[in-house]
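Job type: complex structure
Entries:
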Amino acid sequence: MNNFGKTMKSKLLSWEMLLVVVLVLEIIIFGQINPRFLRINVLMGSINDFISICVISLFVTFVMITGGIDIQAGSIIGLTSITVGMLWQDKGLNIWVAAIFAIVVGLLCGLLSGFFVAYTGVQPMVVTLGGSFLYSGLALAVVNMSSSEAYEGIGGFPESFMKLSSGNVAGIPNQLIIFIALIIISYILLHKTKYGRYVFLCGVNPSASEYSGIRVKPIIMSTYGLSGMSASIAGLILTSYLGSAKSDLGATYTLPIITAVVLGGTSNTGGKGGVIGTAIAAVVIGILKFGLNMSGMPSQYLDIPVGILLIVVLTFRMTSSNPAVVAKFKKLTGKK
Amino acid sequence: MNVVKKLFKAREISSFLCLLAMFLLVGLVNPSFLKPQNIMLCFNGSIVYILIAVGMAFVILTGEIDCSIGAQLGLAAAVCATFLKNEAPWGVAILLALLVGLVCGTINGFGVTVLHIPSIIMTLGTNGIYRGLIYVYTQGKWVENLPAGFKGLAQTNIFGNLCWFFVMDLVIMLLVFLYLRKTRHGKRFAAVGDNEMGADLIGIPVARTKMLAFIICGAFSALGAVLYVSRVGFVTAISGNGYEMKAIAACVIGGISLSGGVGTVAGATIGGIIMASISRLLVFLKISSDYDNTITGILLIAIVVIDSLAQRRSVEKARRERLAARVTETEGGADHE
Amino acid sequence: MQKVETEALLKIKDIRKSFGSNEVLKGINLELNEGEVVALIGGNGAGKSTLMKIIMGIYQQDAGDLFIHGVKTDLSKSSLALANGIYLVPQEPMLFPNMTVEENIAMGFNENKIEMHKKIVDMIAHLGWDLKLDRRANTLSIAEQQLVEILKGLLRESRILIFDEPTSSLSFNEAESLFELIEDLKKKNIGIFYITHRLSEVFEIATHVAIMRDGIVSLSGAVSEFDKSHLVKALLPPGSELKTAGESTAVDYSKAKPMLELKDFSGYGFSGLNFEVYPGEILGVAGVVGAGRTEFATTIFGMDKVKGGKVLLDGEDITGMGTRKVLDKGINYVPEDRFLNGIFKIRETGWNISSAQLRNMSKIFLNKKAEKELADKYINDFRIKVTSQDQLMGSLSGGNQQKAVIARALSTNPKVVILDEPTRGIDAGARGDVYSIIGKLKQQGVAVLLISSDLEEIVELSDRAISMYQGRINHTFPKEKIDLDNLTAASFGVYEEGE
Amino acid sequence: GSKETSGGSDSSASAASGDEKLIVFVPKVTGNSFFESANDGAQEFAKKVGKFTINYDGSATAAVADQVTIINNAITQGADGIAVSSVDATGLDEVLKKAQDAGLSVVTWDSDVTADARQIMVSQGSPEILGEFLVQLSEDALKASGKDPAKDDIKYCWHYSQATVTDQNSWHDAAEKVIAEKYPNWENVAPDNYYSEQDAEKAISVGESVLTAHDDINLIICNDSTALPGQAQAAQNLGKTVKDVAITGFATPNAMKDYCTAGIVNNWGLWDTGLQGSIACYMAYYLADGNKVTIGDKIDIPEIGEVEIVNNSEITGNDSDNVDGSGVVFLPERAEFTADNMNDYDF
Ligand SMILES: Nc1ncnc2c1ncn2[C@@H]1O[C@H](COP(=O)(O)OP(=O)(O)OP(=O)(O)O)[C@@H](O)[C@H]1O
Ligand SMILES: Nc1ncnc2c1ncn2[C@@H]1O[C@H](COP(=O)(O)OP(=O)(O)OP(=O)(O)O)[C@@H](O)[C@H]1O
Ligand SMILES: [Mg+2]
Ligand SMILES: [Mg+2]
């Protein structure tokens, strides 16, 4: 038992290192296949295509550490997008005021689901499944409130808003800056603050947390709020990137978000994980898709390698951390 | 008396009442909804959902989840339809579809029980893989112009307008129900989901049971696929997209707890009918189909939240009653002072 | 088939097992014969449960073999163990929460429903236990769950039965009827392993005893060869002394103002409680399981609704406050169910200890330095055996986990500490440590409320005691009146003044 | 050069050597018969002409963001031209402008973006043309069911994929205008329309409910290639035929042949999607090859014939959309399928 804790910790550290290695390998291999891949502006530009997943998965990590799961973030993206478009176009709000409104909407959606999870004891999967139906439906309702037709999308946003995704500061694309800022914020929040510690403790044992005087329910509820808020930030970036507000943006992001969080080392039973792993894993997945596509694999096949990567990596992870499985393998090889 | 009470406590009864209430409410607004012919259409429309919900129920009962059945259904349907189109005997096409389902289910089960990958992650992964394979297999093309005879199967009705597939579904459901509730072997699924360690302790092969649940789930999706092919008549690369979530929702609405061990396939069946009927209700209510998702979401959350609160209340009430019963009425109790 | 008389029913040969780098069993050799009750004793984490789980096929040994009647037998799965007539009544109940008691028991039996029902009813009647068959398992208290687990074991017609601390939460009567049944089983030539931390039980029911320490069986033989002091000596590491609370200083009640005062306090499971606790006093709360002690404690702690009456802390009315408020006011509670309410199993020991005090140590950002100091302080003070404060809580032995939970409760510097069954399931060594912790609290002037079903403990530690019976206080004992007989009688509601 | 479409490095190498151009051909959604047959036609055409290869790549879920990714990849991969059917009327503008800046030719087909974001649109017709076509299909179908479109009271409704899909909605709007003008005797019983989200099973469910909830309905217009067969199947399930209700709309001939034979559907329409795909890819190649086009140019496409570049305002109705270096090519014709001619087509 002497080194149990330490080895666990170093294992987690090495997990993040391993992800970095995978990332580097990806870049090298895809660079070999298509040298254009290695151009800095190409790599940077590709981030736009998976930035939403990166941003959201950072905060879904919080949810999963409390032992929950959030499969509604994708539909909050669409809701945010159409909300910002509608407020700007129909209500004539300043685009940034509209953006803040939209973030509040995302926060409220998250909190609503979080409320049900925390206060009624319904499984998070069910609540957020319901949420994903509900919010994507609400997005259409918002469209109906607006004067524009659903299918047209709302475009023509001001230059300043468009810069959110296309501008840069000192050569670093804005969206990358946003991502890094969010990594830092979420890292500090989760690993350096009391709140973050509470998130972990509530995930490990909510009852023991109560006995420690922690208000478990608001904490759990708040993590869904955070992830809803991150989804709306992603919605804003995506709207700016596409130059068009639509109600069905982000509908397909559930799989990649959960994948990124789990691949990043957060356990889906709660209590363990971290945002750095998530951030790297999200980039690993994004680059994998981008690289495969650049190497000529059509988009509709991309879920195959991503699925395989997920399973292979998790197999590796599970077998290396589960003594019973290791023993089984040893037995198998030993007998031979 | 006791039996009646017990019946009302059963979760599937409240789901059934919910179904009834929904139908009656819509009938109030638009009486033509309650025409027997239309009710039968609702049932006919749920033949695929019922099967996948029952399959999903196995997995959920063991405390796991299968997010890949939409893609499994699509893949099995594509295989079945391709062979039908190439004039293979129906039996061969159906068996091949089942084989696809069994293989998909086995892969999921292997990942969960042998590789110890959490089921939600494993099946989200395989969902992508199976869906990708449909594209590889069909080259993205529609499989259409299937033999009219095979399509005719889904249009063969008994009792007026009721499709015989629906009756078949009910029979299957009943058999499964009895198997799960009455046989020693069938009870294992709920036991494993209820307490894995406890099940292990009394000699229930936990891994094998879970494996079996995934395989059965695959088989049911494949069977659903066969019915889908017969009912719809063509298969596209996105056939079955999103069905996994609908099946999960159906199970939950039918009173099956996602933490495992609680619920019956009768509930899943009712949930399946509800899920399949929502888009129909809206047509009769003259509400735009835009609100399909909103209604599904509200319904799902409302049913589950209300149920959970009621459940909690009754447990809490029972606990308080029991505690209160312990306290003696008079000060000092039996102590002689 | 001829039975080989000389071969033992079960022979354990050179069993080894490690968890990661933690070598728990280092070559265990042990025999069990028909009609024997082998009491297995040893400190927390000695590996008793692990060994039994290996026999039951829940864990697999790394090396070594098991022989049944001299035949090497593969017991690597629980189904194999069951097929060989082995059954384990686990230390922590493993019921199916969503099934009824009856379904729980019947699960895994092959008899038909009616036969089974009759058998169960007969067995319960025979034991005289109070257990409703149609209750769902998730509404049972731990004690009741344990009864069900024991029933499951008794109904099985096994050749080898293993009881892992069956009496840890049973009442005296329930335990007595279990012992009678074990006597019957003995006569039926069943071999029994019986794990316990209560040495008196060893002499009451066991024929043989085996002591596990440092991964080996350090001592074994027929019970008749030993006496209690023998066993205690063998249990402790060489050269160590069993600690007791030491001489306790008497409380001077004349000047003292009560720290905690209950006035007609009622809630779910208890009613009309009136008592007070003084600073530097240990108030023992005796009673049988189900007397409502845990309920009143958790209600004070803000976990359940108050039905009537008042709680005063240092004169201030704190009735009906939430847990956080109560904590802030200066009461802390060490819960009875360590696994459910006490520990954060998969996190560091340091995190566990600091969890209640974080609020006061840090505003927004964690103060890791203060946290570390706090944890180190308690690890040293309480002699919590860890490699470092980063060791995961789940990998600590039960006694050390318990000390960490107490440390958490004391970290908030409370004025009143409620300890609910603080030594349940922990070994003699750790128990001594806990007693000395309690002694220290008293010296620091903390008011201690000691709830325990181990009446000896109350006798040893309390300055005053109350006994609870069916949700009410039926007696209060001054120091000089506290003895085992009085407490037992009062707990069962048959105490007569002057007895 | 290589004929492989899958080797990215090969393609870019060939792009550099200039002997074979790589065109990325983007459908609105993959797995839809409409787009798949466009791809089939285009691939076959490319093989015959031999001057360019086509890389077919699209979103499986009709997501704008996916299309943006695909176009981004096309740019970085070193493709020479893009021919895209846009999911969103404006959502691709930015990325397509970026593609043009990077030297790629940009052609849209089937579903357009803002005029200045692309060079050529290969259109099956303006919304007005297609709206009128839908009305014409409806008239024919009504006649086949024994109604007089001009005099009888006609109850009708729409059933297509989603409120968010650009082109289907624009056709719907245009057709509604035509109906309002021409046929005051027609009544739309469900102005909110019915949607089935390209889910074949849902199309049947919705179809059945429409037929039951409005049992006196005369006409259902399904301008979506999943909704039309679903609606026809629903009618078949309910035992309704051409005589009871007129069902028409857009779908490929193959998807509807059975229903036509069974007497459930009389007529439906579409245009030659293979031809449209071919022209789109050829135009992309033509522009990528360094050719410039101006309004009024006539371009000779091998195997197909001559097409003319016309002003953007022909489809948008806005003169302000007529910008330099940008124009529209119309497909020669749209086809109406009936039992008589459906077997002449195989897509
Ligand atoms: N599944 C496990 N994984 C890792 N370590 C374990 C596991 N189970 C037991 N251990 C460790 O093995 C050691 C022996 O545990 P075991 O439960 O057998 O002790 P015990 O003798 O039964 O103690 P107690 O009297 O407290 O019940 C302990 O150090 C414990 O932490
Ligand atoms: N229905 C229940 N649901 C949840 N927990 C319960 C329930 N019944 C009892 N408990 C809890 O189980 C534990 C043990 O209860 P028990 O029946 O031993 O009563 P108790 O009041 O703890 O008795 P004691 O006088 O020994 O403290 C307590 O923590 C109690 O709160
Ligand atoms: Mg033990
Ligand atoms: Mg208690």
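Summary: Chain C touches chain B through 42 residues (CB under 8 Å). Residues 172-187 of chain C form the longest helix (16 residues).
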